Amino acid sequence: MSFTAEVKDELARVDGPTRAAQYAQLSAIVRVCGTLSFRGPGRYSIKIATETGAVARTAIKLTHKLFDLETTLTVRRSVLHKTRNYLIEIPEQEALASALVELGILVPGRGLAPGVPRNLLRTRSAIAAFVRGAFMAGGFIADPRGEFHLEIAVTGETFANELVALIGTYGVKARLNHRRGAYAIYLKSYEDITALLRGMGAERVAQAVEVARAKKSVKNDVNRRVNAEMANQARSTDAAADQLELIDEAEALVGLASLPPAVRAFCECRRDNPDLSLAALGQEMDPPASKSAMYHRVLRLQRIVADARAESTD
């Protein structure tokens, strides 16, 4: 089961606490993944297509419970994708037209409602149910072990913008992308995704996202530390190689025996420990020296070599 299917399965188990919330959830499912056919005044039929069994069960359950409408279910299997496709048909019947009006999908005398059914969304629970239904019908969420991404695909610019506004009531900033005749409402941040999941009632999945984020944070921190250590090691190796070349030049120009004792001790220790960082090299000295003290010895050696080069040139 995909992560999206897990989320929808959990959402399908969330019951709307009021009849108004149940109306709102069914309205969103029909609006997002339903197709309305019109055969004349008062003559309608609906087809609802989904790849998620939980969505199909919810649509049928609410249709029977709220309106006692006749429905048929056809289950098909895609040979190409090896997935099931559920087709719910609500055939033409006397009570369907009034049900569509109650769901805010039809406006009497004006046809299909372009936006969200504001008359159904007067309570917090109804808003949560509508957003939940919209996600169940057209939503996708990436596995949080990879990237953080959630989106809901809908049609109709007015409907998309008003759904973005509803999602915003959870303090979530959703973005809208026009895509091939449809609209994708999407979230990219961990905070927004977990807030929306909790708002829709998917508490268990929200906790799973939090766990995934914590693991990802630890992994990223370890990677940063490893990369920093490797970079430091590379810099130390390059610096040690430069110091060894400097020591060889000092020996050729002035001889190590003529160097100041502290500088000579540094040269001998560096030759004995070519792989150590400057700080670690200082701990090998007798007595031990700080990284700062070792750095100043390198600077003194550089000045001695520079002076010897100048004298040699003269």
Report on the architecture of this protein.
The chain is of the alpha+beta class and 314 residues long. Helices cover 56% and strands 15% of the residues. The termini are far apart. The protein has 11 helices and 10 strands. β5 (106-107) and β6 form a beta hairpin.
Count the E strands: 10
* Percent range of helical residues: 55-70%
Figure out the total of helices: 11
Topology as H/E string? HHEEHEEHEEHEEHEEHHHHH
Radius of gyration: 35 Å
SS class = alpha+beta
Question: Could you write a compact summary of the structure shown?
Answer:
The protein is α+β, with helices and mostly antiparallel strands and about 325 residues long. The chain is built from eleven helices and ten strands.
Annotate the secondary structure layout.
Elements: H1 3-12, H2 19-33, E1 34-38, E2 44-50, H3 53-67, E3 72-77, E4 84-90, H4 96-102, E5 106-107, E6 111-112, H5 124-138, E7 139-141, E8 150-154, H6 157-168, E9 175-179, E10 182-187, H7 190-200, H8 203-253, H9 261-272, H10 278-283, H11 291-313
Antiparallel strand pairs: 1-2, 2-4, 3-4, 5-6, 7-8, 8-10, 9-10
